Amino acid sequence: MPANLVVGAQWGDEGKAKVIDYLSKDTDIIVRYQGGANAGHTVVVGGKKYIFHLVPSGIIYDNTTCVIGNGVVLDPEYFLKECADLEAHGFKVKEKVLISDSCHILLPYHRLIDEAREAGSSPERKIGTTKKGIGMCYADKMLRNGVRAGDLLDKENLKRKLTHILEVKNQELVKYYDLEPVNITEMYDFLLDFADKMGKNIVNTVYYLDSELQKGKRVLLEGAQGTGLDIDFGTYPYVTSSNPTTGGALAGSGVSFRYLKDVIGITKAYATRVGEGPFPSEILGEAGDILRKLGGEYGSTTGRPRRCGWFDVQMIKHAVTVNGINSLVLTKIDVLSHYDSIPVVVGYEYKGKKLHFFPSQGLEDVKPLFAEYKGWKDDISGINSFSKLPTLCQSYIKSLQDLVNTKIGIVSTGPDREHTIIMD
């Protein structure tokens, strides 16, 4: 059986969790392949809201096994709290979650350094980090100075490794950031406690996934953030510290490209981003506040207000190219029912010349080129049939599909599972 991938086509917060939840009923294994507790995925079932950070959102289905892949940086404190919260709602998390033995462990000093670096940055150099230590943990991974989940299964080896790491890390904490050194005994005990609670869940997930795919199991790969925040293909340096795109899905899970069938890109019917960085279609002032309130655009992890803008054709075409997206899901179209006229960014102009691509540099200097589409002014919340949408709404969807030259397979008209239109 093939593996399918759900990827964000904008700057994250596109509604991936709802789509993953919708697809999970036909899936055996859900794999989270990158990011950390800086991501927040919201699912609404029967009017009840669940927010996920590290645990794949497919956990709420009885039939699914959830995997935290090697590309994730796992914060033990956040993870155990999330497990406890979900288990309080009746979900058997620890019985259904596997953790890659190659998954890197995010430690308390990563958060401390992240906070110190952001606080010490000049206004023009602030990234807008969530200060959860994600970038610092990925940096240690690349410096080959990190702790992996598999290290927790060998107590003697863990102590040797931790001693070596903290000799270096404590110098950095004290001399560079003027912070207190880490107590090795406390850190060691903290990790052993996590190993006692979750050690049986730590396995070689590359072998597990390959074996299950060969048996015919259905796998869905789930990322955090979106293409615009990819460390290589996003608006660098205002990006996350990993690859949310298709390449990151393969590297962060160990699933071979030979298994990959459908790449499903998620995009809002408008655009949002959190934190700093260029945003060509951004709506400033009161108009931006109105769209933010209409869409409830506040971060599910941080509560930060999201910046809001109009749908950007060039950005979605970039996401289609980078990820190999063969189908799009359009979310939150019901939010646009408020408008008489809906602008869409259909291109960019840079230094007097029209650009035919999403630029790697200079995005902050492009002039967005707009087209206007008539609004439908009818409440479409919860409609689950394309034919029942107002004609002008149908036209808007078809126009976006033509502009990005990629089929829109699913349209979401609200947060609940049932508020979904299958186009095919």
TrEMBL record:
Active site: D13, H41
Source superkingdom: Bacteria
Assigned keywords, A-Z: Cytoplasm, GTP-binding, Ligase, Magnesium, Metal-binding, Nucleotide-binding, Purine biosynthesis
Cofactor(s) the protein requires to work: Mg(2+)
SMART domains for the chain: Adenylsucc_synt
Residues noted as binding IMP in the record, renumbered to the chain: D13, E14, G15, K16, N38, A39, G40, H41, T130, R144, Q225, T240, R304
A GO biological-process term: 'de novo' AMP biosynthetic process
Pathway note: Purine metabolism; AMP biosynthesis via de novo pathway; AMP from IMP: step 1/2
A Pfam cross-reference name: Adenylsucc_synt
Chemical reaction(s) catalysed: IMP + L-aspartate + GTP = N(6)-(1,2-dicarboxyethyl)-AMP + GDP + phosphate + 2 H(+)
Textual note on the cofactor: Binds 1 Mg(2+) ion per subunit.
InterPro entries in alphabetical order: Adenylosuccin_syn_GTP-bd, Adenylosuccinate_synth_dom1, Adenylosuccinate_synth_dom2, Adenylosuccinate_synth_dom3, Adenylosuccinate_synthetase, P-loop_NTPase
Subcellular location: Cytoplasm
Entry binding sites for GTP: 12-18, 40-42, 306, 332-334, 412-414
GO cellular component terms, semicolon-separated: cytoplasm
Keyword Metal-binding attached: yes
EC number(s) given by UniProt: 6.3.4.4
A molecular-function term among this protein's GO annotations: adenylosuccinate synthase activity
Function of the protein: Plays an important role in the de novo pathway of purine nucleotide biosynthesis. Catalyzes the first committed step in the biosynthesis of AMP from IMP.
UniProt family annotation: Belongs to the adenylosuccinate synthetase family.
Self-association and partners: Homodimer.
Name of the protein in its database record: Adenylosuccinate synthetase
Organism the protein comes from: Leptospira soteropolitanensis
